[in-house]
């Protein structure tokens, strides 16, 4: 499979950055789906379903994506049985950050691949520990606008990195596209990222 046959079913700039980081050429085809959690879905079941739905819908909307491999991903932040999606507003973002302050939470990200009749999903699970946050820090961070499009109301690759005391797991998974699992999926569908990446001139 040629690397030009990949479609990323996401509008996330972080997922585009991560997929580009491993040298894979792709097209972006975001889809709009209901990302609400169903009943008492576990975080793993939730992100698996949504990631696969994104990839499947993009494949269908593109009329089978003309044979391309379609990649979808979804991330959930959870703590104590509560799953945090993207905050609806600054008030909800503050509530989420207060709940995460001084606690260890789980970040679960699924990446799904769809091509013709073949479907596959892989999941990355990480634990992130926040130091205790002050009300002033939370307010200042929310005012940047950064939390509003991110699960759990924070992005580890931005200013919120200063909140992270410890990370156990996948940094790219917490960002939203676990590269270990993604490379494994691409290999499963016939693409070796080391052969797909464009040659670079040594420094």
H and E order: EHEHEEHEEHEHHH
Alpha carbon gyration radius? 17 Å
Strand content: 15-25%
Please give the CATH class. Alpha Beta
Which CATH architecture? Alpha-Beta Complex
Query: Count of DSSP E strands?
Result: 7
- Kindly report the average pLDDT value: 89
Residues in helix, %: 25-40%
Largest sheet: 7 strands, mixed
Count helical runs: 7
Spans of 5+ residues with little confidence (pLDDT < 50)? none
| Total of domains | 1
User: Structural class, please?
Assistant: alpha/beta
- What's the shape? globular
What topology does this entry show?
Blueprint lengths: L5 E3 L4 H9 L5 E2 L14 H19 L7 E11 L2 E3 L5 H11 L3 E12 L2 E13 L4 H9 L20 E5 L2 H5 L3 H10 L4 H4 L7
Parallel strand pairs: 1-2, 1-3
Antiparallel strand pairs: 3-4, 3-5, 5-6, 6-7
Helix pairs in contact: 3-4
Give structural notes.
- With 203 residues, the protein is an alpha/beta fold.
- The chain has a single domain, classed as Maf protein.
- Helices cover 33% and strands 24% of the residues.
- The chain has seven helices and seven strands, in the order E-H-E-H-E-E-H-E-E-H-E-H-H-H.
- Strands 1, 2, 3, 4, 5, 6 and 7 form a seven-stranded mixed sheet that branches.
- Helix 3 (90-100) packs across helix 4 (135-143).
């Amino acid at each position: 499979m040629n690397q030009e046959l990949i479609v990323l079913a996401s509008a996330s700039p972080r997922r585009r950055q991560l997929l580009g980081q491993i040298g894979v050429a792709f097209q972006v085809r975001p889809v709009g789906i209901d990302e609400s959690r169903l009943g008492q879905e576990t975080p793993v079941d939730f992100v698996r379903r949504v990631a696969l739905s994104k990839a499947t819908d993009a494949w269908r909307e593109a009329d089978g994506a003309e044979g391309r491999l379609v990649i979808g991903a979804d991330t959930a932040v959870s703590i104590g049985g509560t799953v945090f999606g993207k905050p609806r507003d600054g008030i909800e973002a503050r509530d989420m950050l207060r709940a995460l302050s001084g606690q260890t939470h789980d970040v679960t990200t699924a990446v799904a691949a769809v091509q013709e009749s073949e479907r596959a999903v892989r999941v990355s699970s990480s634990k992130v520990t926040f130091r205790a946050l002050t009300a002033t820090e939370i307010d200042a961070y929310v005012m940047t606008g950064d939390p509003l499009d991110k699960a759990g109301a924070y992005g580890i690759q931005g200013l919120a990195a200063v909140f992270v005391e410890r990370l156990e797991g996948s940094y790219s998974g917490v960002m939203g596209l676990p590269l270990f699992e993604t490379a494994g999926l691409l290999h499963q569908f016939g693409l070796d990222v080391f052969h797909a990446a464009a040659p670079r001139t040594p420094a």
